Amino acid sequence: MKISVSLLGALASVVAGHGLVTDFWINGKHQQGFLLDYYYAKKNGGAVPAIAAWYAENLDIGFVAPSEYGTAAINCHKNASPGALTATVPAGGEVAFYWEAANKQPWPHAQGPILSYLAACDGDCSRADPTKLAWVKIAAAGIDYDTQTWASEDLIANNNTWTTKVPTGIAPGNYVFRHEIIALHAAGSANGAQNYPQCFNIQITGSGTAKPSGTLGTALYTADHPGILFNPYQTIMSYDMPGPSMFTG
Ligand SMILES: *[C@@H]1O[C@H](CO)[C@@H](O)[C@H](O)[C@H]1NC(C)=O
Known about the structure:
By secondary structure, the protein is of the alpha+beta class. Helices cover 12% and strands 29% of the residues. It has a single domain, classed as Coagulation Factor XIII, Chain A, domain 1 (Distorted Sandwich), CATH 2.70.50.70.
């Protein structure tokens, strides 16, 4: 079969746009993330392996745009569905997320915050409906004003890995973790921010009692929020973190 050069070029540009968490670690123990191979397997009639990471079709240009903040895609990315399994972390433990761009390239966007949320599942998270999940922000890192270093730049410097600590006070139970990079390199223009959310089923153990109320995905962000419609090409003296207030228990 002959494939035209222009088609190859088009495919290459499609692949170049995506970004996803291919691996994660719970207190240092490796867990399988979602791979594009699984998307292609499903497309070809095969099965997606049983993993705790969610399936998503973040294939086109790879991100959720502000114009899609009112859609289900803002929860766990496009056409997302839960992983079949659930990983386990004790409250106070650490979850590390390894991000990859196309073909094992490092994360390409050095400007923007990194956020983590969790949402309690009603029962097993493998049956969760993303549009019903109420997200509680548990971590958010923006820019260091002294060094003008964004969280995304720190991630790149740390082998594309970001570590989030699970709040010690959170009640045990089944949760969906929502880990997200918001890339701001084009955010000075309307609809230019790029949200990259990724989801994982994680059971929290421990003796915490906090059950903070959360925010539906479609209410997390607005396209004209000052941290979303934001010109990063300036000396930044303040950055207004998008999303609801943070749970610090
Ligand atoms: C970065 O992390 C990936 C995924 O665990 C690993 O394969 C790679 O060896 C790491 N690279 C460095 C320089 O540590």
